[in-house]
Design brief:
The protein has 381 residues and is an alpha/beta fold. The chain has helices at residues 55-70, 77-87, 108-122, 124-128, 141-150, 189-195, 201-219, 252-261, 286-297, 366-375, and strands spanning 97-101, 131-136, 160-163, 168-172, 185-187, 227-229, 239-243, 266-271, 276-281, 304-309, 325-329, 358-361. The chain has 2 domains: 37-69 and 201-281, no CATH class; 72-195 and 285-375, HAD superfamily/HAD-like (Rossmann fold, 3-Layer(aba) Sandwich), CATH 3.40.50.1000. Strand 3 (160-163) and strand 4 form a beta hairpin. Pfam families: S6PP.
């Protein structure tokens, strides 16, 4: 059955396509029930939730903040949408397989080593253009750019970048069929428009600030801040918070429950080994970004090969399920184990480790990765 889009903004650009906006496959991405959205309860006794800003003011503030956060590295806002449209057939559409590197290493050197090992394991297929690459991370675009520079890598080595835990999606302009002068990153504004649906924006931010104040107050004035807003790395669709003392912070599930009570829909992700909280729209996630690429560009999900660590950010479990292929790097991201200490279910309930499209490596060397890719049928024996 065809789902009707609530906010049709785009359609897949394929030669000879007769799809109309009303039948756009983007509708299924926004298929979410709208229950509890009108629930408004007080966070603090005597205070009411003041998250009902004038809609025009919210839209204006959001647009200004987005322009400021993106303009440093991505293309100017008035050109970004045209660039994505003009890509038409980005390099990712020509790939036989797409390798998604989603290993949540904190140390730059560790992540660079894994990236280079994946490149090396791809071998001649990478040079021939049969394999494409996506970097999926909790880092900001600025941090990703610094990472690439530190490792001597180029944005053209990747087809796309999923940043801020899935709240931002960029393409490599130098890796597309058409080369654009200026910035090597092209922002996908259609993705931004999609995840903006039911996003709490400034009202959500103020609620989060009151929560951080209550957490810090419980610890005491002389004990220092447990958690604080990190305005420098926050963006229009990702409110970032610096966690100075992870052991003193309440469990993330309590914050998620609090946001649901307030009627504020969002994803709260603990990342960087517990040193950062990313709060992003409920329709945004690293796994959702992959689904968006399938709907937007027709890249089959079964042709995605996702590389993840044995542990990771609190959203890494979302990368386990699905029809895509998964390579789990044993022995990596062990420090992130503490982020899942409150998990009340075994990992096997999320993804069976005995199925054919998930394999575990014995190490992170190119030879180990090649062995795993052969088991998945990606490389020839």
């Amino acid at each position: 059955a065809s789902c009707k889009s609530r906010q049709p903004n785009w359609q897949r650009m394929e030669e000879g396509s007769d799809h109309s906006d009303s039948d756009s496959p983007g509708d299924s991405l926004r298929d979410i029930q709208d229950i509890s959205l009108n629930l408004k309860l007080s966070l603090d006794v005597g205070n009411t939730l003041d998250g009902t800003l004038d809609s025009e003011q919210v839209a204006t503030n959001a647009k200004k903040k987005l322009e400021a956060s993106v303009s440093k590295l991505s293309k100017p806002m008035e050109k970004a949408q045209d660039d994505v449209f003009n890509l038409k057939f980005p390099a990712i559409r020509r790939r036989k397989y797409v390798f998604v590197i989603a290993v949540d290493c904190v140390a730059t050197s560790d992540l660079l080593q894994i990236i280079k090992s994946v490149f090396s394991a791809a071998g001649e297929q990478r040079a021939a253009g049969s394999f494409g690459f996506i970097l999926s991370t909790a880092l900001t675009l600025s941090e990703v750019n610094s990472l690439l520079e530190a490792g001597g890598l180029s944005p053209a080595d990747f087809d796309a970048f999923i940043c801020n835990s899935g709240s931002e999606l960029y393409y490599s302009s130098t890796g597309s069929e058409e080369n654009y002068a200026g910035s090597p990153f092209v922002l996908d504004e259609d993705y931004h428009s999609h995840i903006d649906y039911r996003w709490g924006a400034e009202g959500l931010r103020r609620t989060l600030l009151r929560w951080t104040a209550s957490v810090n107050e419980k610890k005491g004035a002389n004990a220092g801040q447990t958690v604080s807003e990190d305005e420098y790395i926050s963006s229009d669709h990702c409110y970032a918070f610096k966690v100075n003392d992870f052991t003193s912070m309440p469990p993330v599930k309590e914050l998620r429950k609090l946001m649901r009570i307030q009627g504020l829909r969002c994803h709260i992700i603990c990342c960087q080994n517990g040193s950062r909280l990313n709060v992003i729209p409920v329709l945004a996630s690293r796994s959702q970004a992959l689904r968006y690429l399938y709907v937007r560009w027709g890249t089959e999900l079964s042709n995605f090969v996702v590389f993840i660590g044995e542990w990771g950010d609190t959203d890494y479990e979302g990368l386990l399920g699905g029809i895509h292929k998964t390579v789990m790097l044993k022995g990596t991201c062990g420090d992130a184990r503490k982020l899942h200490a409150n998990r009340t279910y075994p990992l096997e309930h999320v993804k069976s480790l005995d199925i054919n499209n998930l394999v575990q490596t014995e190490g992170c060397d190119p030879s180990d990765l090649k062995t795993s890719l052969r088991k998945l049928g990606i490389l020839k024996p």
